[in-house]
Amino acid sequence: MEIAVLGGGHGCYAAAADLSEAGHRVRFWRRDAAALRDLAQRGTITLKDAAGVREVAVHAVCADLGDAVRGAELIVLPTPATAQSDIARLMAPHLSDGQVVFLAPGTFGAFLMPRLVRQMGKRARVLWAETGTLPYLARKHGPQEVNVTVRAVRLPTGVYPAAQAERALAVIRSAYPSVNGCGDALSGALMNAGPIIHPPLIVMNAAPLQHHERWDIHSEGTQPSVRAVTDRLDQERIALREALAYGAPHFPLADHYTSDRWMYGDAHRKLQKSGDWREHIELDRHRYVTEDIELGLAFLASVARWAGVDAPIAQGLLAIAGGWLGRDLRRGARTLEALGLTGLSVAGLQSLLSAGES
């Protein structure tokens, strides 16, 4: 299958190498022109995982975004939600009918990005989907080298517009067989694990993160008190899904720590053992803050306000992070208020997500 992979982070390199090794024709694009030139000259990504180390050739490294997107049946964006608006505007002129865009994960980007594309005057009939996590627990070990600790075994995915979900899911499954449908784009956004696992780890480890040059929030940073708050936050997410009549499975995050039933299977111990998550985290610019708190947690809290579901842990973590950032995160760009959707009823929003905006 012809696949475009857009972005330059850990998950993007993992996707480009993994999908290439699986036999797909991958066109890889990222905004960093210098890094892209180095990859183009080399032509391969070093992929490391439990099977060993090998060089994987990428079909095409594209300096022009249009060259990557045109003719691709599937467009994969394992990028932070903070990059979605820019990428949507850049890719808009090159989209065509029948393409599927897969956000992994999305933070409701499967609704926002097509709106931005339409604002650019593009009317191509594209399907958009988002899942609950990156398909990979991965970290780059060098400019063109990526280590994949675990691959996802379950990827609950919402589609926009939901009325065409089966076609979108069939295309995505050709690349990621572990994808399963979970409804519309809002359901997919409420599967996002990042705004559940990372805000408690960041907020409750803020002092050691500022004190130590490198700190592993998944090892010494994951203590019983942190786990208790994470579980309560996830209970709020599940209560919200149930209030909106989204069905199980809800993929409770507790399974990540206690069983093999979560999206990555039995992954937490492998994540800790790898040592790849002992890293430097800046509290005002790391993606766990800019993506998972400022966008993801703010989105979750806004949906809870709109739906009338009590979410004190979500609101409290958001307020504390806003305290050190110096702004009210309830007014963020990815809230339902900012998206102009709070005037809709639950049935009205779900109808919109099924049919799509005109």
Key features?
eight-stranded mixed beta sheet; N-(1-d-carboxylethyl)-l-norvaline Dehydrogenase, domain 2; about 45% helix; 2 domains; alpha/beta; about 350 residues; globular; four-stranded mixed beta sheet
Describe this structure in words.
The chain is of the alpha/beta class and 358 residues long. It is built from 16 helices and 14 strands. The chain has two domains: 2-189, NAD(P)-binding Rossmann-like Domain (Rossmann fold, 3-Layer(aba) Sandwich); 194-355, N-(1-d-carboxylethyl)-l-norvaline Dehydrogenase, domain 2. Helix content is 43%, strand content 19%. An eight-stranded mixed beta sheet has the order 5-2-1-6-7-8-11-12, sandwiched between helices. It has a four-stranded mixed beta sheet with strand order 4-3-10-9. The protein is globular and about 50 Å long.
Uncertain segments are none
In this structure, how is the largest beta sheet organized? Answer: 8 strands, mixed
What value does the Rg take, in angstroms? 19 Å
Main β-sheet, spatial strand arrangement: 5-2-1-6-7-8-11-12
Described by the principal axes of the CA atoms, the overall outline is: globular
Count of strand segments: 14
- CATH H-tier superfamily of the largest domain: NAD(P)-binding Rossmann-like Domain
* Classification by helices and strands: alpha/beta
Distance separating the two termini: 30 Å
Count up the domains: 2
Q: Helix fraction?
A: 40-55%
Average pLDDT number: 96
Instruction: Note the run of SSEs as H and E.
Output: EHEHEEEHEHEHEEEEHEHHHEHHHEHHHH
CATH architecture of the largest domain: 3-Layer(aba) Sandwich
The number of helical elements comes to: 16
Query: How much of the sequence is in beta strands?
Result: 15-25%
CATH first level of the largest domain: Alpha Beta
How is the CATH topology of the largest domain named? Answer: Rossmann fold
